[in-house]
């Protein structure tokens, strides 16, 4: 029986049809991408080795100042425990933050010869909508596919029967500290671990199946 080439290849451009998965997590001042501010953004680049095994590679993060006229929902701010104008955040303007975070993605796209990044997130639609609105406001060119995304909540529901990040990571054998949750860096890095674990598990299942069928 022939192995499905895309699952067992060791290059992103072949594994995901020319797309590069990039893990993203945001913290926002509400749930409305049109009105509420983007306050934290973290991206995690993924690597793939010669055996086709995935692992988190590098983390990039920015604190972001609310855009002019943004609405700040107090309940959301209390939940994520962020004061948008706290000087020690060392927050920067939204446009500068996007440029800083998109730069390593664009370098990775060239390195791996991929045409677009695909946003990987836990409830990825939320992050993608906020990024799309931030891009419209700032005029910064986005490296992300405009609608395709990989949602780890859906994938972990399929594989582990768990859709909440803390429960899905534990089901995957990944440590999760609830006290550190709702930080863009922590959640992005745990989402990246979960995504890589699911990809590697899927690869192993297929490898064992095809070996047993020979």
TrEMBL record:
The role this protein plays is: Trims short 3' overhangs of a variety of RNA species, leaving a one or two nucleotide 3' overhang. Responsible for the end-turnover of tRNA: specifically removes the terminal AMP residue from uncharged tRNA (tRNA-C-C-A). Also appears to be involved in tRNA biosynthesis.
Q: Does the keyword Nuclease apply?
A: yes
User: Could you tell me which residue ranges the Exonuclease domain spans?
Assistant: 20-204
Q: Which residues bind Mg(2+) 2?
A: 25, 27, 182, 187
Q: How does it assemble?
A: Homodimer.
| SMART domains, A to Z | EXOIII
Alphabetical GO biological process terms: DNA replication proofreading; tRNA processing
Native source species: Legionella jamestowniensis
Q: Which HAMAP family match?
A: RNase_T
Protein name per Swiss-Prot or TrEMBL: Ribonuclease T
Task: Tell me the name of the encoding gene.
Answer: rnsT
Give me the segments passing through the membrane. Answer: none
**Annotated site residue numbers, Important for substrate binding and specificity:** 79, 126, 147
**Binding locations of Mg(2+) 1:** 25
Top-level taxon of origin: Bacteria
Q: Where is the active site?
A: 182
Q: Which UniProt keywords apply?
A: Exonuclease, Hydrolase, Magnesium, Metal-binding, Nuclease, tRNA processing
